[in-house]
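User: Sequence in, structure out. Go.
Assistant: Echoing your sequence, followed by the structure tokens.
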Amino acid sequence: MIRLGYADTPLGQVHYAEAGSGPPLVLLHQTPRSWDEFREAIPLLADGRRVIAPDTPGFGASARIPEHSIETYAAGILGLLDALGVDGFDLAGHHTGGVVAAEIAARAPERVRRLVLSSTPYIDEAARKRRASRPAIDAVDERPDGAHLTELWRRRAAFYPEGRPDLLTRFVRDALQVWPDVEHGHAAVSAYRMEERVGLTACPVLCIGASADPYAFPELGPLTERIPHAETAVIEGGGVPLEFQAEEFARLTAAFLART
């Protein structure tokens, strides 16, 4: 059973989902999502583990924050784990969540036991320059007739499997929770100096790539090369959303955590 709760942190209340018991595993979502991105994966990973999936501060049902940066997100997640009495933990992040996870592993290496980076982009100076001219992914102009909601749906539809409007509905619901600030997470990723931080990761690392992800999959190699002792795995046909590849993500993650 998935339980929901709030914890007080220096950044305000952080909302989280939790299931299972045992060694902690923390799951960090992409933006502008919430813990709901892991709804299918949590039960698959909670056998013998205490799975904690927070809403990143500023997203989902967590408190809004005055500054959006990867460093702020990481501080908020560590504040949540302090409030929950969690010291050492395994950590997995998807897309933006992977970038946040890399920062957490760099700033608190004594607490992160193992790290899974799923569809995580590699951000260096060249990537920051490319992103500076890239059109916004989710930002659309609000219109009196609500047409902006249809536009948001259409922009994301290409990343979702046909015949699964329920998954896209969940994305739109999360995006509307932080409207109109849907691009803050993407901007935080684009500003992050990842090349200065990711090499500080000291624990075993698994980098998972989704072959149909046009944003992160081309960066799987560069990311892995810059992390000492990292290994890779590929989800064939996997894309940007985690939900429809949750079973394979959970299988790869559980196998990695079990043997290291």
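User: And one key feature?
Assistant: The mean pLDDT is 95.
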